[in-house]
Amino acid sequence: MKRILIFLLSFIIGILLFVWVIKWVGWKEIKEILSTFSGWEGVAILGITFLIWAVGVWKHKFIYKSQGYNLPVFSLGEILLASFAITYLFPTSYFGGEAFKLYGIKKKFSLPWDKNITAFTIEKLVSLSVILLFLVVGVISFFLLASPLLRNFGLICFVFIGSLITGLTIFYFKSFKKESILKWFLKIFRVKERNHLIEDIEKDVFHFFDFRKILMWKGLGIAFLRNLLILIRCWLLISFLMGDVSIFVALAVLFFTHLSYLFPLPAKLGGLEVTEVFIFGSLGLGAATGISFSFLLRGIEIIVSLLGLIFLLKLGIRFFMGSVEDRVKINNFS
Hints:
Blueprint: H1 2-25, H2 27-34, H3 39-66, H4 73-89, H5 96-109, H6 113-145, H7 151-177, H8 181-188, H9 196-208, H10 214-242, H11 247-260, H12 271-282, H13 287-333
Helix pairs in contact: 1-12, 2-13, 3-4, 3-6, 3-10, 3-13, 4-5, 4-13, 6-7, 6-9, 6-10, 6-11, 10-11, 10-13, 11-12, 12-13
């Protein structure tokens, strides 16, 4: 009940933000910009979006294969799309999408929990390593393109990203030296108890992140390709709306698009509009263009999330029936 109330509250906040921004910018100007967007341009953006998803599935498949599990592409893709639908449409579910992905892969492919968690951790570290690179370049682009009055905001964002980079740098340093991060934390907090399962997972993660092996570089390369395609989609979408723009403009816009995902609002309703109005207005591209950009991007993401909902329903029924069958077998055996 509490989660439902939180979801409804976040949805109402999103609606209010959405309506306020539309009224502030003006629907007539937004409509004029959207009218310039053609059908074939929409097909191109949708095509790149599905290509982004295909590379994302490839990334997960590669990482799980590195742990000794060659997962079927289509079945893995179903789980990833269902996970995205939960995260995108129900962001107040406290990482529900990621929890579903972890459980779904474990249930679907009968993976041991330790190997599943290891692959899950590796995927997150690989993704974070690459996305931080794009975020840093995005902040720098904003700092160079924005007016002097707004550069302080860019510095604040850079400090926040810098803290994440520091943590990731510590991980890579420890990984390179094969020094346990777990023992380091336990020593700091003066905890003497050891968890052998976590230690085994840490060893497998360190084994993947070995600078001398091609395995890590392939994983980072696939993740880089996915983020590059996301940047290309962003650049194309802006270009379709207002003509040719610099790739640095797209990097700055992409940074604020990622920033909008921090707001726990269903389908990023309202939050995406506010951030895009800010960045497009700051760069002199027009607030109405920012609203139009958010409309089109959300439209693409809703198509993907609706497809994910279909797979979520399918997998949910399958997992539920499987659990019922397991309980029946246990009762019959007893």
